[in-house]
Design brief:
This protein has helices at residues 2-18, 23-26, 29-55, 60-79, 83-101, 107-117. The chain is mainly alpha-helical and 118 residues long. Helix 3 (29-55) runs antiparallel to helix 6. The longest helix is centred in the middle third of the chain and has 27 residues, at 29-55. The two termini are 27 Å apart.
Amino acid sequence: MNTVTTETDHMMARLSDSAAVPLAQTVDENILEDILADWGDALVRLQSAALIIETDPADAEALGTIKRTLHTLKGDSAICGLPEVSGIFHEIESLLENFIEENICPTDMLLKVHDWLQ
């Protein structure tokens, strides 16, 4: 548990730092609109699935939704030229796997990611 908690704290600090990434300056305006729309959809999926696994951590469908959503966010970020953001999503994916392996509910981490995206 200590390792996952430490890794999560580190990742959350990086999320805070990356909140200052000036998307409007690094991404074309049309692409930015698409990214923000996709991220809005991802927010809904992440929050819904996180709340489901809070009551049923073994819910395979909710975990699958979370994994697919994070993977898509990582890929979209990379394609749009946001390697720092893509790297953070890669870390989040790894942390999710650690939570699952250690049988810890990742709801808190996922809701923090949700807040960061918002």
